[in-house]
Design goal:
Length: 101
């Protein structure tokens, strides 16, 4: 009985610890900043963008007849960044980071 209660306690403590560490990473370690967004320039590769912003939250790829279009979407709460690649190079970008204090 005591071992079962102890096991539950350890499991709950581990879950709470994990949740707190994930939450703190989002709050304090997010790469989704206006400063990093401004580092993204046309012609950059996907690897260069991921070096700055990390892996995207969502990826959408469309194979057009004459080129391949890929959209990387980064989300952190209400904040977002969208990077559009044309043939694997940055073509355009959009964000709401400046609008959110």
């Amino acid at each position: 009985m005591i071992m079962k209660a102890f096991s539950r306690f350890v499991l709950c403590a581990a879950i709470v610890g994990y949740a707190l560490s994930v939450a703190s990473c989002d709050r304090f370690g997010s790469k989704l900043t206006l400063e990093n967004y401004n580092k993204i320039t046309p012609g950059m590769s996907k690897a260069q963008v991921e070096q700055i912003l990390g892996p995207p939250t969502k990826v959408e790829t469309k194979d057009m007849i004459i080129f391949k279009k890929t959209i990387y979407r980064y989300e952190n709460g209400k904040d977002f960044v969208m990077i559009t690649f044309k043939n694997d190079e940055v073509d355009s970008k959009d964000t709401n980071l400046a609008a959110n204090p």
